[in-house]
Structures are given as structure tokens and as C-alpha cells.
Amino acid sequence: MGAQGFALDEKDFFTGTDVNIIGDTLIEVKYNKKAFKKIQSIFTRYKHIENIPPKTVSKLATMKGVHQLKIIRDSLLARQLRQRFQ
Fold first, then answer.
1. For residue range 54-66, what is the model confidence (pLDDT) as tens digits?
2. Is residue 75 within 8 Å of 33, Cβ to Cβ?
3. Are 1 and 27 within one domain?
4. 85 Cβ neighbours under 8 A, 6+ residues apart
5. Is 31 exposed, middle or buried (CB count within 10 Å of its CB: 0-12, 13-18, 19+)?
6. Contact criterion met (CB below 8 Å) for 27 and 69
């Protein structure tokens, strides 16, 4: 079983929606604007995730805000999304 993560499409990417697929489970996260802008800023500055300093990740992880989390178990949807983004 592998995990995949991606923005649903370009419009979702710019609004802060991420989806991860693990087996037949989808995990969708919608970030608030402040957190999303910080994430964009980090990935603009660092091209490789391993170059992001732990302190930067820690600051991001401890930001206050409201985010939406959905966990959906649907093997058909997971398969369709996986095929769409491979």
C-alpha cells in the first residue's frame, strides 16, 4: 500500500486543498488562508522538502487557525483519483 498526495486541480491548489490517498482512504485537508500562504512561501523558498529547516516546520505546525479535515473511505473514488493523477 502506498500513499499519494496532490492538490485536486489547479484551482484547489491555489485555495489550499490537499488530498492524500492511502489504500482506499482519502484524507482531504483545507488550510486557512494564513497557513496556506505560509506553506506557499516555504515551498517557493525550498525546492526540496529535505531542505526545509525543522524550525520552519515547527512554526508552521504550531500556527493557530481553523482547518477542515475530511477522511473518506471509498475504494472506487480512491482508485479513480489515483488513476487521474498518475
1. 999 999 989 898 8
2. no
3. yes
4. 4, 6
5. buried
6. yes
Dump pLDDT digits (tens) for 28-71: 999 888 998 999 899 899 989 899 999 999 999 898 988 899 99
Q: Tell whether 36 and 26 lie within a shared domain.
A: no
Q: Where are the beta strands (DSSP E) in 7-64?
A: 17-22, 25-30
Element (H, E) at 34: helix 33-45
Find the domain containing 73 and state its range. Answer: 1-31+68-86
Asked whether 28 and 19 are in contact (CB, 8 A), the reply is yes
